[in-house]
Amino acid sequence: MLILYGIPNCDSCRAARKWLESQDIDYRFHDLRVDGVTAGMLDRWLASVEWQTLLNTRSTTWRGLDEAEKSHVDQVRAKRLLLEHPTLIKRPVAEAGKLILVGYSPDRFVQLAG
């Protein structure tokens, strides 16, 4: 089953959910704030996408971090930050088997319909 990871009040997550529902695609929504994120999830995602894609450096959470935390970020540090601050994850993340999509784009989400 398709799992959509995000937060309910995120505009991109709402758009993705609306699109999935309009296409009659069954999915489960995983609220990153409530349900959290695990190292296993991040390992799966990072096996498919670059950490730079997954880490949302335009987020309010990122801007609120100490400068020392934001400097010299590599994959190991990015994973630690994402575990500590799940809202740093670029949203939504759609996971359907081995297919991982980060961010919402109707053109890319067509892959989920197949």
Order of strands in the sheet with the most strands? 2-1-3-4
Q: Strand-residue fraction?
A: 15-25%
Instruction: Kindly provide the radius of gyration, computed on alpha-carbon positions and rounded to a whole number of angstroms.
Output: 14 Å
Q: What's the CATH topology name?
A: Glutaredoxin
Catalogue the unreliable spans: none
Q: What is the distance, rounded to the nearest whole angstrom, between the alpha carbons of the first and last residues? A: 12 Å
Helical stretch tally: 8
Residues in helix, %: 40-55%
Count the beta strands: 4
Order of helices and strands: EHEHHHHHHEEH
* Dominant shape: globular
**What integer is the average pLDDT?**
95
What does this protein structure show overall?
- The chain has a single domain (2-113), classed as Glutaredoxin (3-Layer(aba) Sandwich), CATH 3.40.30.
- A hairpin with a 2-residue loop joins strand 3 and strand 4.
- The chain is globular and about 45 Å long.
- The protein has 114 residues and is an alpha+beta fold.
- The protein has helices at residues 11-22, 32-35, 39-48, 51-54, 60-64, 67-70, 75-84, 106-113, and strands at residues 2-6, 27-31, 93-96, 99-102.
- The chain has a four-stranded mixed β-sheet with strand order 2-1-3-4.
- The protein contains eight helices and four strands, in the order E-H-E-H-H-H-H-H-H-E-E-H.
